[in-house]
């Protein structure tokens, strides 16, 4: 595995977007001592939603996983902003909480959120071992298919 987080991102052909501004009365991230809390990130790329609607109805599992991956990229962008571009200060990704807009009979939320967990593992290596929640929701903001937040330990 590459030596730095930036090297791993480059090897994965990922260019981080600018961290998105909050859409309401909240902070995109908040830090206290050695913990960084990242607000829920939607699955956007280049200012557009990657997937809208409900898994099990109008969004496929594969598209849901792509949406979760986009959320993870946006989480990393927020971490990057919070740490002034020094992603190597991440000691450990402690938790991801994934919210999946789901049809009533959809039960594969955990497989959807794997799209984020797998990317976090590829980018942060040993520091990526996190706890996780994958929860089905009736609806998410802006009709997003997925939203994910994070808690990260930092140096």
UniProtKB/TrEMBL annotation:
Source organism superkingdom: Bacteria
Domain Endoribonuclease L-PSP/chorismate mutase-like: 8-146
Protein's UniProt name: Enamine deaminase RidA (YjgF/YER057c/UK114 family)
InterPro entries linked: Endoribo_LPSP/chorism_mut-like, RutC-like_sf
């Amino acid at each position: 595995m590459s030596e730095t987080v930036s090297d791993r991102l480059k090897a994965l052909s990922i260019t981080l977007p600018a961290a998105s501004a909050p859409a309401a009365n909240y902070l995109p991230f908040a830090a206290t001592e050695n913990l960084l809390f990242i607000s829920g990130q939607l699955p956007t790329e280049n200012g557009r939603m990657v997937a809208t609607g409900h898994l099990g109805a109008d969004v496929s599992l594969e598209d849901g996983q792509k949406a979760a991956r986009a959320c993870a990229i946006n989480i990393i962008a927020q971490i990057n902003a919070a740490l002034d571009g020094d992603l190597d200060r991440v000691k450990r990704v402690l938790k991801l909480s994934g919210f999946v807009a789901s049809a009533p009979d959809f039960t594969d939320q955990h497989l959807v959120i794997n799209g984020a967990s797998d990317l976090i593992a590829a980018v942060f290596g040993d520091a990526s071992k996190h706890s996780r929640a994958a929860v089905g929701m009736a609806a998410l903001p802006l009709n997003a298919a997925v939203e994910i937040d994070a808690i990260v330990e930092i140096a």
